From TrEMBL, chain B:
<keyword id="KW-0175">Coiled coil</keyword>
<comment type="similarity">
    <text>Belongs to the gas vesicle GvpA family.</text>
</comment>
<keyword id="KW-0304">Gas vesicle</keyword>
<dbReference type="GO" id="GO:0031411">
    <property type="term" value="C:gas vesicle"/>
</dbReference>
<dbReference type="InterPro" id="IPR050530">
    <property type="entry name" value="GvpA"/>
</dbReference>
<dbReference type="GO" id="GO:0012506">
    <property type="term" value="C:vesicle membrane"/>
</dbReference>
<dbReference type="InterPro" id="IPR018493">
    <property type="entry name" value="GvpA-like_CS"/>
</dbReference>
<dbReference type="InterPro" id="IPR000638">
    <property type="entry name" value="Gas-vesicle_GvpA-like"/>
</dbReference>
<feature type="coiled-coil region">
    <location>
        <begin position="67"/>
        <end position="94"/>
    </location>
</feature>
<dbReference type="Pfam" id="PF00741">
    <property type="entry name" value="Gas_vesicle"/>
</dbReference>
<protein>
    <submittedName>
        <fullName>Gas vesicle protein</fullName>
    </submittedName>
</protein>
<dbReference type="GO" id="GO:0005198">
    <property type="term" value="F:structural molecule activity"/>
</dbReference>
C-alpha cells in the first residue's frame, strides 16, 4: 500500500493465525498476516507520514496519542494471546514493506521458533511488593519494647529504645522489609519457569508512603497459575507489613528477548 | 494481595518490553525507557495531569469516575495512615516515658541496698 507502513503486533506459528476481535492501532478493523519461514506476523497498515521517525518523536510528548495506541496494541496482543502463543513485538515496530518483514522473519526463524516452543502454555505475571519503612520502624521499636518489658527494663535499654525511636530506625526497617520481600520472591520461584527482576527504585510510592521493595515478572505455566496466586495470597497473609500487587496474566512481554 | 492491571503496568510492559528486532525496521521508538517514565509520571498524578491539560481519560466515563474515586480514596487512606502512625508513635513514647519514670523512682530493692550501705 503506497504511503503506508506496517505496524507489527507480534509473531505466531503459521497455522495459529486467528482474527483479532479488537480494533487495530488506528481504530480500524483490518489486519494482515505476513507469512514467512512457517511464521506469521500480525500487522496492520498505518499512514507512513504519521509513523515516521519525526512524527513519532512529535507524538512522544502527546500522552493521549501514545496511551491510546499502547492500549490498542496491548488489546490486540492480549486477544491473540488468550487463544494462541504469540511473541509480542516492542511498541513502535514499523516495517516499510511486507518483504522487509518477511526477510526479518526468515533471518530470525530459529530464534522465533525456539521462543514459541518455550512460551507454549506460559503466561507472564507482574508482582510488585511494597512496604512502609517508617511504619515498619515503629513496629520494630514496639516489638523491642514489648520484649524489654517482658525481660525486665533497664535504663540502658530504655535509652537505646528512645534513641531508636528518635532515629526511626529506618535502615534496619528497610533491610527487614527487603529481606521479607526477598523471601516472598523465593517462594514464588517455586511455581515459575523464569523470572526477571525490575528496577524497584523507579516505581513511585503508593498510598501511605509505601515504597517498592521488589518488582519482578514471572513466567508461569497456565497449569501452575492457581498455585502461583495461592503462594502470593499466603505470603500476603504471612507478612502483613507487605503490600503485594499482582497484575496478569500478560502475554510474555518480558520473556521474549532474542539473542 | 491486590490484583489489578493499572495503566502504568500496561505502559511499562508494552513500551518497555517485547521483541526488539534490528535491521530493516523503519522506526523504533527511541529511548522507550525515558518515554515510559515520562508517560507514567503523567498518569501517576491525575491532578497534575489535569493541571497541564492532559485529560484524555475524561472522554472515558469509566476512567473519569474511577480516577476521581481512586484519588479521593488515596487521600483518605494517607490521612488515616498518618494519624495511625502518629498515634503509634505517641503510644510508644508514652510507654517509654512511664517506664523511664518508673525506673527513676527508687524501688524496694534500691531502698534496701541504700539502707544496707554503711
Amino acid at each position: 500500500m503506497t504511503g503506508h507502513d506496517l505496524w507489527v503486533y507480534g509473531v505466531v506459528a503459521q497455522g495459529d493465525e486467528v482474527r483479532p476481535e479488537e480494533r487495530n492501532i488506528e481504530g480500524g478493523e483490518d489486519f494482515v498476516w505476513i507469512r514467512a519461514a512457517s511464521l506469521a506476523a500480525l500487522a496492520s497498515y498505518v499512514p507512513a507520514a504519521d509513523y515516521n521517525e519525526k512524527a513519532l518523536a512529535r507524538h512522544q510528548d502527546d500522552a493521549s496519542w501514545v496511551v491510546g495506541r499502547v492500549q490498542a496494541s496491548a488489546a490486540v496482543i492480549a486477544d491473540v494471546f488468550s487463544r494462541r502463543v504469540i511473541i509480542p513485538f516492542k511498541f513502535g515496530a514499523v516495517f516499510s514493506t511486507p518483504e522487509s518483514l518477511q526477510k526479518r522473519l526468515h533471518e530470525q526463524r530459529t530464534e522465533f521458533h525456539e521462543l514459541l516452543k518455550r512460551l507454549e502454555n506460559k503466561e507472564e505475571w507482574g508482582v510488585k511488593i511494597f512496604g512502609s519503612i517508617e511504619a515498619q520502624s515503629i513496629r520494630m521499636v514496639e516489638w523491642k519494647l514489648d520484649q524489654a518489658v517482658k525481660n525486665g527494663v533497664t535504663s540502658g535499654k530504655l535509652y537505646m529504645l528512645k534513641k531508636q525511636l528518635r532515629q526511626s530506625n529506618l535502615r534496619d526497617a528497610e533491610r527487614d522489609l527487603k529481606e521479607k520481600a526477598r523471601r516472598v520472591h523465593q517462594l514464588l520461584l517455586m511455581s515459575t519457569d523464569a523470572h526477571q527482576i525490575g528496577k524497584a527504585a523507579s516505581e513511585p510510592p503508593i498510598s501511605g508512603n509505601s515504597v517498592c521493595l521488589m518488582k519482578s515478572s514471572y513466567l508461569v505455566s497456565s497449569s501452575e497459575r492457581n498455585q502461583f496466586l495461592t503462594r502470593i495470597h499466603d505470603a500476603g497473609r504471612q507478612y502483613e507489613e507487605l503490600q503485594v500487587k499482582v497484575s496478569g496474566p500478560w502475554a510474555p512481554y518480558s520473556f521474549c528477548r532474542t539473542k | 494481595m491486590s490484583q489489578s492491571t493499572s495503566l502504568a503496568d500496561l505502559l511499562e510492559r508494552v513500551l518497555d518490553k517485547g521483541v526488539v528486532i534490528a535491521g530493516d525496521i523503519t522506526v523504533l521508538v527511541a529511548d522507550v525507557e525515558l518515554l515510559t517514565i515520562k508517560i507514567r509520571l503523567l498518569v501517576a498524578s491525575v491532578d497534575k495531569a489535569m493541571e497541564i491539560g492532559v485529560n484524555w481519560w475524561q472522554d472515558d466515563p469509566y476512567l473519569n469516575i474511577r480516577a476521581k474515586q481512586l484519588v479521593e480514596r488515596n487521600r483518605e487512606l494517607e490521612t488515616e495512615l498518618a494519624s495511625l502512625r502518629q498515634a503509634n508513635l505517641e503510644t510508644i513514647q508514652t510507654r517509654l516515658d512511664v517506664l523511664e519514670s518508673a525506673l527513676k523512682k527508687p524501688g524496694p530493692r534500691d531502698s534496701r541496698r541504700k539502707s544496707e550501705k554503711p
